[in-house]
TrEMBL record, chain A:
GO terms for biological process: iron-sulfur cluster assembly. PANTHER family: IRON-SULFUR CLUSTER ASSEMBLY ENZYME NIFU HOMOLOG (PTHR10093). The lineage of its organism: Bacteria, Bacillati, Bacillota, Bacilli, Bacillales. NCBIfam families: SUF_scaf_2 (TIGR01994). It comes from the Bacteria. GO terms for molecular function: iron ion binding; iron-sulfur cluster binding. Belongs to the NifU family. InterPro entries: NIF_FeS_clus_asmbl_NifU_N. This is Nitrogen fixation protein NifU. SUPFAM superfamilies: SufE/NifU (SSF82649). It holds the Pfam family NifU_N. Residues 10-128 form the NIF system FeS cluster assembly NifU N-terminal domain.
UniProtKB/TrEMBL annotation, chain B:
Catalyzes the removal of elemental sulfur and selenium atoms from L-cysteine, L-cystine, L-selenocysteine, and L-selenocystine to produce L-alanine. Its cofactor is pyridoxal 5'-phosphate. Transmembrane segments: none annotated. GO terms for biological process: cysteine metabolic process. It catalyses: (sulfur carrier)-H + L-cysteine = (sulfur carrier)-SH + L-alanine. Coiled coil: none annotated. Residues 23-394 form the Aminotransferase class V domain. It comes from Viridibacillus arvi. InterPro entries: Aminotrans_V_dom (IPR000192), Aminotrans_V_PyrdxlP_BS (IPR020578), Cys_dSase_SufS (IPR010970), Cysteine_dSase (IPR016454), PyrdxlP-dep_Trfase (IPR015424), PyrdxlP-dep_Trfase_major (IPR015421), PyrdxlP-dep_Trfase_small (IPR015422). Keywords: Pyridoxal phosphate, Transferase. Its EC number is 2.8.1.7. It comes from the Bacteria. GO terms for molecular function: cysteine desulfurase activity; pyridoxal phosphate binding. This is Cysteine desulfurase.
Length: 147, 410
């Protein structure tokens, strides 16, 4: 049994976020709402953001999905809170590179998000991990275009 | 049960996945291919490849004979009256879309009804949804019983004189439920509606006799019955097909082409525009030979036995719930399940690490998932090459998954 391989995917930090998601729910008074789903598997997320003066002041998510998609959403909201839109977009790029198994910019502290790096070895699960990040990217982009 | 030596015909099964011998339990998505089918396709390309129905040359005749020979094999296999009723398509989806776009567009009008069920695959749902929207017709759903079966009372209550088309799966790709098509066809006919059968999960698994069922259309895919991908069949009653317009126009399907008017070839070719799926059809013919050598009754019994064995053993896992009829006699060879709070993707990943391939997700049946009140499930589906040992491996894998995630949910 390749339990060791599984441990690369299901790191304890990930399971902790899955069990006790941070920033779960709907953000009251949010000015950005993004719904996104993964049509191949049924995972879905609603991301609500408060973006003011180019800063992601607050973020919450709601949704249903596997441990990877939900923990990734939890970590993402934790990470982008307080960041500028530009920084958040940059983080999304770094995360995308990490998922594709590419070299990624490690000068920026990703915190808990780093635990998801093992997902790149499970190609079928990459879409689970990127769902929340894609929602965030779309959300901040819409908001900055509206300005 | 089918003897284990059948596995030797399937080269793909003889490999390790993530360090374990492969256990393939995703045949409802696509079946594996026996060497006989692979060889038939190879033989076609090595010795017969040529375009059909046009060459004066010998190769062209060989290709045409093999292609039309496959059509005759399919006719016999589903007991159709004539090869004019057998149209080659890309698969079930294309076949159902032809019925919706050709028959549907001319026979369904404003205020008419199209009746389907909650257990339909998206391919037998969206073509009708689109047609209903376009024509101002109503799409009605027959409600399911709590065990995921259909009751004839509810079928009778849903189909009315306004119903023009009734369409449903022969067997559900999620619940495994086998629907009483013959009885429902009779009800549809009483109201003057045509009966369309999505045979994707039925035709590969048990004997299908279109004359006995009396259905008007039957769609199925080659790749779920040991054949290659990219080939499927639309069966239609000749009297209906004759009065239907083609949906694809071009070469192969024409009789006479003028500057402003053209006429079509006779059946079945008027529905086969362009160079047809020659190698695919020949591969499907070889798959049918292979299945018939085993015998469809033997295949049906084999899958029933495996389902019974699987349900019995999976039920011993605490926290595992099985969807659909619990009585194996009412279902085909697949088991859809969920394991406690462990998401089916996570279950499937643990199984994959053990070399076991199952499907996880909504199985292209989102309305049914809503009816089941879950967003996703896992599914193990069986075919001729599976055996009890495969199911033992599945059950062991599920126990591993349960233990692995136990501390998360304690």
């Amino acid at each position: 049994m390749s339990l060791n391989n599984l441990d690369q995917l299901y790191r304890s930090v990930i399971m902790d976020h899955y069990k006790k998601p941070r920033n779960k729910g709907a953000l009251e008074g949010s000015n950005v709402t993004i719904d996104m789903n993964n049509p191949t598997c049924g995972d879905r997320i609603r991301l609500t953001l408060q973006v003011n003066n180019g800063i992601v002041e607050d973020a919450k998510f709601d949704g249903e999905g596997c441990s990877i998609s939900m923990s990734s959403a939890s970590m993402m909201t934790q990470t982008v809170k307080g960041k500028t839109v530009e920084e958040a977009q940059n983080l999304a790029h770094i995360f995308s590179d990490m998922m594709l198994g590419k070299e990624y910019d490690d000068s920026i502290d990703l915190g808990d998000v780093e635990a998801l790096s093992g997902v790149s070895k499970f190609p079928a699960r990459i879409k689970c991990a990127t769902l929340a990040w894609k929602a965030m990217e779309k959300g901040v982009q819409n908001e900055s275009e509206n300005k | 049960m089918i003897k284990d030596d059948i596995r030797s015909y399937f080269p793909i099964l003889n490999q390790e996945i993530n360090g374990h011998p492969l256990v393939y339990l995703d045949s409802a998505a696509t079946s594996q291919k026996p060497i006989q089918v692979i060889e038939a396709i190879k033989n076609y390309y090595e010795f017969e490849n040529s375009n059909v129905h046009r060459g004066v040359h010998t190769l062209g005749n060989r290709a045409t004979d093999s292609y039309e020979g496959a059509r005759e094999k399919i006719r016999k296999f589903i007991n159709a009256n004539s090869t004019e009723e057998i149209i080659f398509t890309r698969g079930t989806t294309t076949a159902l879309n032809i019925v919706a776009q050709s028959y549907g567009r001319t026979h369904v009008g404003e205020g008419d009804e199209i009746v389907i069920t909650y257990m339909e695959h998206h391919s037998n749902l969206i073509p009708w949804q689109q047609l209903a929207k376009e024509k101002g017709a109503t799409l009605k759903y027959i409600d399911l019983e709590s065990d995921g079966t259909l009751s004839l009372e509810k079928v009778r209550a849903t189909i009315t004189d306004k119903t023009k088309i009734v369409s449903m799966a022969y067997a559900s790709n999620v619940l495994g439920t086998i629907n009483p098509i013959k009885e429902i066809t009779a009800i549809a006919h009483e109201h003057g509606a045509v009966m369309v059968v999505d045979g994707a999960q039925g035709v590969p698994h048990f004997k299908t006799d279109v004359q006995d069922l009396d259905c008007d259309f039957l769609a199925f895919s080659g790749h779920k019955m040991c054949g290659p991908t990219g080939i499927g069949v639309l069966y239609g009653k000749k009297a209906l097909l004759e009065n239907m317009e083609p949906v694809e126009f071009g070469g192969e399907m024409i009789d006479f082409v003028g500057l402003h008017e053209s006429t079509w070839k006779e059946l079945p070719w008027k529905f086969e525009g362009g160079t047809p799926i020659i190698a695919g059809a020949i591969g499907l013919g070889a798959a049918i030979d292979f299945l018939q050598e085993i015998g469809m009754d033997t295949i049906e019994k084999h899958e029933h036995d495996l389902s019974r064995y699987a349900i019995d053993h999976m039920q011993t896992i605490k926290g595992l719930s099985i969807y659909g009829p619990q009585d194996p006699a009412k279902r085909s060879g697949l088991v859809t399940f969920n394991l406690d709070d462990v998401h089916p993707h996570d279950v499937a990943t643990v199984l994959d690490m053990n070399g076991i391939a199952v499907r996880a997700g909504h199985h292209c049946a989102q309305p049914l998932m809503k009816w089941l009140q879950c967003t996703a499930t896992a599914r193990a589906s069986f075919y001729i090459y599976n055996n009890e040992e495969d199911i033992d491996r599945l059950v062991a894998g599920l126990r591993t998954a349960k233990e692995y995630f136990a501390d998360v949910f304690e």
